[in-house]
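Amino Acid Chain and Its Fold in Token Form
===========================================
Purpose: to set a sequence beside its fold so the mapping can be learned.
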Amino acid sequence: MSSTPDLARPHASRSNSAAPRGRRFVAWPLWATLAGAAGAIGTVGTDLRPAAETAAWQEGRDYIVTSADMAGLDPALGRIGYSVGLLAILALIVFAAAWRRHVEQRFAGSIGARVVSVGLVASAGALVLGYGWRGALANYLGPEAGLYDSEGLFVYYMLTDFGAYLPWTGVLVSAFGLAWMAWAERSVSRILGGFTTIAAAGALLLVLISGVPGLPGVFMPAWLAVTGIWLAVGRSRVAEREDAR
């Protein structure tokens, strides 16, 4: 059976509510919550920093990190970050596939839905490198210690500095796509759209003002985790159960 016309055209029936009539729970958006939670841990929670740099930051003073600091890095923390990061990548890919199955195919004319998909896949691909460098550094600090000197380890350290943060820019783009779906296409709850607009615009504005390119990695995992829960239990046409359509 074909979809009804208002579902095939995102701009149609603007007078209708963006929410389905019945209360319901759908599980597939929770892949976004898993990706966001794992991403927050793998990016921020297990960020490898020399103890001296952390102490200097707490005291409000600058510290110059050199290759001599590499010996003091914690390989176990790096391994945890890498492992949790892999979980975030897996969850991002599954969520992107579920989004295409449940949303992009249903709202075939939606530009916003496609932007969400592309942003998720872009982040997942780039995070393979970001978390991979974290895992490589942990490996050369632990099981394969001694294969690289401190200068070689410092190269890996510099790659991990923003390596797990930068890729979340793709999720930032996905957030703008979801906001478009809320305000222009009326297929997402406007409450979620408002939250998403504030999160995405705020993160982008901070990046432009501060010049720090890794800020999406600080904010967007949390946005993704909250959005997954919201879509799972809230009211949005994109997450409507198939038996309720």
Observations:
- Residues 40-244 form one domain.
- The first helix runs from residue 5 to 8.
- The chain has a mean pLDDT of 90.
- The chain has one domain: 40-244.
